Amino acid sequence: MKPYKINYHMHSTFSPDAKHSVAQMVRASAEAGLDEICFTDHVECTGNAAIPAGFDLWPEFDLTGYIATVNTYRIKTENTQEHIKKPIVKIGIELGQATQNKGRAEQVLAAYEWDFVLGSLHNLKDSYDFYYLGQQGVDMRPLMRDYFEQLYELAVYNRFSVLSHLYYPIKYIARQGLDFDMAAYGAEISDIFRVLIQNGKGIEVNTSALRSPYSDTVPSLEWIKLYRRLGGQIITVGSDCHHASAVYLGIEQALDYLRYAGFTAVTIFEKQQPIFKDI
For the whole model, what pTM was predicted? Predict the structure, then answer.
């Protein structure tokens, strides 16, 4: 049986840090042979508070334009003129730092019947996105205890489908050439997994760090296996792509990891309800 290939973490130019339009990302996904994709453009509940002086600020998210644009592809599944089969297109959001501004989070969640919501933590409370901390040369390793504490709070908040990039700062730590032992946080990661499983939520295998010196998925195979041993079932795959060339980055490797960990299916979503597809 042909494995079902998905990318459930994808950005378009509705995210200020992305390079290609919805149309271009759909086209690239079709050419890559993906069966299903989900757009998850950034909605940062902390807004520009996580961007230090000297960097470009982000405009307000165009919610109306985003919904209208993605839905033109979400409801069209016919072949293109070049007879390339379009993937099934779903609409979601990447909801950043929801617990830091729950009012904003609830407003966005109520704005549309999303297929899928990624829960993300890009910055600690009253701090900058780890990306910018890395740009400023900050040693992020001492911040990881707080990171996992706040990620646990996000898991408990439970207003998402899947928790995104389990240890987001790792690729920026790796780019600084610093050693870091994730095993030191095994207890914290296990606690987060247990909350997710109890609440009927899941994790993603994020492949974007394959482009960094870390050169592995987030989480890596050992943590995917732990999630499975603890009873985890809901799991998605996404390349966190911000440009068309990365729509298929690491997708095969991530699906292999799922199989190695004992999963027989990857999860897709419709109106935030999980559906399992054989891999």
Answer: 0.95
Name the phi and psi angles at 267, rounded to 5.
-105, 135
Rounded Cα distance between 22 and 152, Å, is 32
Closest CA to 125 of 50, 74, 200: 50
- Select from 19, 26, 17 the least CA-distant residue to 44: 17
95: in domain: yes
- Let me know if residue 231 belongs to a domain: yes
**Which residues on neighbouring strands pair with residue 235, listed in sequence order?**
203
Q: Structurally, how many domains does the chain consist of?
A: 1
Q: Where do runs of H (alpha helix) occur along the chain? A: 22-32, 63-74, 102-110, 130-135, 144-157, 170-175, 186-198, 221-229, 251-260
- Residues written for the chain: 279
Alpha-carbon distance of 65 to 213, in angstroms, equals 36
pLDDT interval class at 110 (50, 70, 90)? very high
